[in-house]
Amino acid sequence: MEVTAGAMRALLPKLAKLLKDEYNLEKHVREGVKSLEIELTMMHAALRKVAEVPLDQLDDQVKIWASKVREISYDMEDAGDAFMVRVEDDSHSGPSTFKNRVKRPIKKISKLFRKAKELHQIADAIKEAQALAQQMAGLRERYSGLELQNSGMVTSTIDPRLTALYIDATDLVGIDHAREELIKTLTEGEDSSKQQLKIISIVGFGGPGKTTLARAVHEKIEAQFDCSAFVSVSRNPDVRMIFKKMLHQLDKVKYANINESSRDEIQLIDELREFLQDKRYP
């Protein structure tokens, strides 16, 4: 599994490079690469988790998934390398001699065909990777709630959302670029006078990457606001407890004993509304 994670680690910086203006990607290809970069960052986080499990304790579905991810990583890397080399070759066309001026139109047509082919390969790799993520969505529980056996002892299953809150964002390859893209989406065209609420969904298969990425965004922008809170929500949440956690994070002094409160959901919502009145928050 370390080989698969290594393939992903090599690919992510190349995708970031591919997004630079010098490569002049078509809009739909550029958007696909951005989406794929975020998806592969999540995949890489899951692969690192899977790599910690002894090979004989992984089921066949996980092994097949990891193998497929590795193949797509190599295909995407090859297509990206070929495209970048072609662009760099085009920028070094040689001196302006009569012979070169005669050759250039023919070479230019030939390169356009090759460039189109390489762009098509990149687009195909993007589609294949995105399809893979959708097909493997059913394995979400297998990654997030994996119970491992070691020396005859079974470790307790821990809610992955909890462990994700304490993962160092720097451990995730490519997270800086994904974080900046999300921040740009959140703040682009922002009119502070309107204070419009924006919601962004970070989707993908199970693993700590999504929560860690969301936390990285929150930590980067929270200083720009009057107050903020970051809470993790399970599939069957205790709504009262979530509201209490939010209030405590918003003002730790005022709501120091909020957990002892017997207020119901409506009362807690009213408290949140009153506290957030006329405040900017992420």
Helix-strand layout with pairing:
Layout: H1 2-18, H2 27-51, H3 60-90, H4 98-135, H5 140-144, E1 149-150, E2 153-154, H6 160-164, H7 175-187, H8 209-221, H9 239-250, H10 265-276
Antiparallel strand pairs: 1-2
Helix pairs in contact: 1-2, 1-3, 2-4, 3-4, 7-8, 9-10
GO biological process, one term: defense response
Domain Disease resistance N-terminal: 7-97
GO molecular function: ADP binding
What this model shows, in words?
The protein is mostly helical and 282 residues long. Among the domains are: 2-144, no CATH class; 229-282, no CATH class. The chain contains 10 helices and 2 strands. It has helices at 2-18, 27-51, 60-90, 98-135, 140-144, 160-164, 175-187, 209-221, 239-250, 265-276; strands at 149-150, 153-154. Strands 1-2 form a two-stranded antiparallel sheet. Strand 1 and strand 2 form a beta hairpin. Helix 1 (2-18) runs parallel beside helix 3 and helix 2 crosses helix 4 (98-135). The protein starts with a helix and ends in a 6-residue tail after the last helix. Mean pLDDT is 67; it is low at 90-113, 138-159 and 162-166. Residues 7-97 form the Disease resistance N-terminal domain. Keywords: Coiled coil, Leucine-rich repeat, Nucleotide-binding, Plant defense, Repeat. GO terms for molecular function: ADP binding. InterPro entries: NB-ARC, P-loop_NTPase, RX-like_CC, Rx_N.
